[in-house]
Amino acid sequence: MSYRLGVDVGGTFTDVLLVDEETGSTWRAKTASTPSDQSVGVLHGIDKVCAEAGIDRSAVAHVLHGTTVATNAILEGKGATVGLVTTQGFRQVLQIARSFVPGGLAGWIIWPKPEPLAALENTVEVPERIGSDGTVIRPLDEDAVRSELRKLRENGVEALAVSLINAFANDAHERRIAEIAAEELPGIEISLSSVVLPEMREYERALTTVANGYVQPQVARYVANLRTKLADEGVPAELSILRSDGGLSSAGAAIAAPVTMLLSGPAGGVTGAVWVAEQSGHTELLTFDMGGTSTDVALVQSAQARIGRETKVGDLTVRASAVDVRTVGAGGGSIAHVPGLTRALRVGPQSAGAEPGPAAYGKGGDAPTVTDANVVLGYLPAALAGGEITLDRAAARAAVQTVADAMGLASVEQAAAGIIDIVNENMLGGLRLVSVQQGFDPRDFALVAFGGAGPLHANALGRLTGAWPVIVPPSPGVLCALGDATTSARDESARTVLRKLGDLSAEELAAVFRDLSESASARLAAQGVAAEKIAYSADVRFVGQGNELPVTFDLDDGPAGLAAKFDAEHERLFSFNLTVDHELVNARATVTGAKPTVTPIHLEKGDGDPASARTGTTPVYVDGGFVDAALYDRLKLRAGDVIPGPAIVTEMDSTTLILPGHAATTDPSGSLLIRPTAEEA
After folding, report:
1. Which residues form the Hydantoinase A/oxoprolinase domain (predicted)?
2. pLDDT by residue (tens digit) across 148-201?
3. Pairing label, strands 446-450, 285-290
4. Which one, 135, 306, 324, 648, has the greatest CB density within 10 A?
């Protein structure tokens, strides 16, 4: 009997889910993250869940891991010193960049332009030139290449990125530079733009290639360290890493292309949310993952997460397929503060993290956080994470009292309620980014709330967005780990085409995409995975436009069908279409392996009365005063049980708050479906 294990490392907690590969049975565990060495928390979580399942570590055959190592390297500026090789005349490609300044009309006055990931002194140019059609206009000067690489070696570069003009059309010069670099810079990680992003637009291609090199050494060290520790601790498992687009790649593939895993952590949550929501019959979703440090939100249509062509991490935007997740600096550990000049309450983005954590954790933290506010309002039980963390209510009150004093409020409860209101509004802003700003009405979607803190705020976010029902999955605190364990291996091939759709026959169009799917399938097969599903997408624009839109389609649609789908998307986003021809810019094929078997939960049918799960009452502060809320043990709920608010439902890894005027129905699949009652509606 073998097992697969999903692991998600967050800023505060590490979540682990164990799956029996024969029966699909699952076990869950949650433990504190260890930022100084994430593998320590991972191994602690593995021990905990294996003990829960009564198995030995050696039975774990696959470890499927969502990680923020690459993300943190970007956010903290702790990546490698990267050397960049460009075509002669393009040395300042990263410095020139794009003429985009965030913020309002005066944003250029106050916006500090971020420093390029490859410094100008570590950027060299070599004599060569390839035309946009792939013809060699100027041969590569290999002597000059060696001379420039030696300069980079003297500068102490730790990784090398090679991005030549039009390398997407002909990669011969880049491949030759890589061969020379292996001689001149032995042991250095090398990223080629023709491999990382074989598409047009020299700046985006260079930036993405440099970002790949920037995080590559750190990712390689982390993956190698985790592999070694797993083996040393008796876990002879195959290690796979979650990609930003929600698929899996082997550890070796992740090291080779770490830019594809910048949103590895959030993607697992979206995958898990889709799987759980489908069990209760919902496929149009807004996902809401609130952890200890941040909140990630996404939109799902027809049980398919929206995949974007850009990955954004801090000020960095690279061209890599990723689930369209937006992150808000709002989590259970977000710190509340009152600036002295305005006396206006602010929450986040600073976080207490896992160390020292909120004041209520009793680890030395004294800053008022969202978790402390929830403790003051009576929303949280005495212990979290299955008893691993005992809450210090007095410390929480003392921390939140500093906010009440700074604002001149009469009670600590008023300050706590203000903290919760503001953090809810911050998260509402994130949900509007993936819905209203993209042309979608949130009232047309269900809201799936998970993460350790998500279910506490879910009911309030449903009330703010009008998205019903609010779905709280079983074990919501470890749903990201469920996503890691229930996803499939995936690979992608892309190519710039630049052809008018009117000039392409259906056979020519299909040939382009079949060639790409064969390349991706071959790489997947090299990882020991057979292709089961192939999806096609294209970047299309009207002839003469400067930007394109990604469109998914079937090969049977042909050029006319692809144009029609682009028109529909363009109309939805911009409310108009042009009468000119369409142009196919980039073509992509995504190949996915088989999904693993996981047995859904099937609860015993009840009579609608949750009395057998009721464990008592507790006072909670709601709408300006204290009321008695019923307490329920989630593990004792039956299918069809209806829980009227105010109520609190507790479980090992999370706590769900049901507000007055709302009720939660227990779905047979184990999810809680919260809706307004008739009076509230």
Report:
1. 205-488
2. 999 999 999 999 999 999 999 999 999 999 999 999 999 999 999 999 999 888
3. parallel
4. 648
3-state secondary structure 465-528: HCCCCEEECCCHHHHHHHHHHHCCEEEEEEEEEEEEHHHCCHHHHHHHHHHHHHHHHHHHHHCC
Identify residue 386 by its one-letter amino acid code. G
Task: Give the C-alpha distances (Å, rounded to integers) separating 401 from 249, 347, 534.
Answer: 48, 15, 56
680: pLDDT strictly greater than 60 = no
In this prediction, residues 382-400 reach a mean pLDDT of 77
Which residues are CB-contacts of 236 (< 8 A; sequence separation ≥ 6)?
58, 230
Query: Is-cis flag, bond preceding 339, omega within 30?
Result: no
Q: 585: Cβ–Cβ under 8 A, 6 or more apart, which residues?
A: 200, 496, 497, 498, 538, 539, 540, 541, 548
Q: Which domains does the chain have, with CATH numbers?
A: 3-74+220-261 (3.30.420.40), 79-216 (3.40.50), 283-432 (no CATH), 490-592 (3.30.1490), 610-676 (no CATH)
Q: CA–CA separation, 117 vs 316, rounded Å?
A: 9
**Residue 127 burial by Cβ neighbours in a 10 Å radius (0-12, 13-18, 19+):** middle
Give one DSSP letter per residue of 119-156, joined into a string. -GGGEEEES-EE-TTS-EEE---HHHHHHHHHHHHHHT
SS3 for 592-608 is: ECCCCCCCCCCCCECCC
Residue with tokens 């090789």: 85
pLDDT beyond 80 at 678: no
Give the Cα separation of 313 and 305 in Å (integer): 19
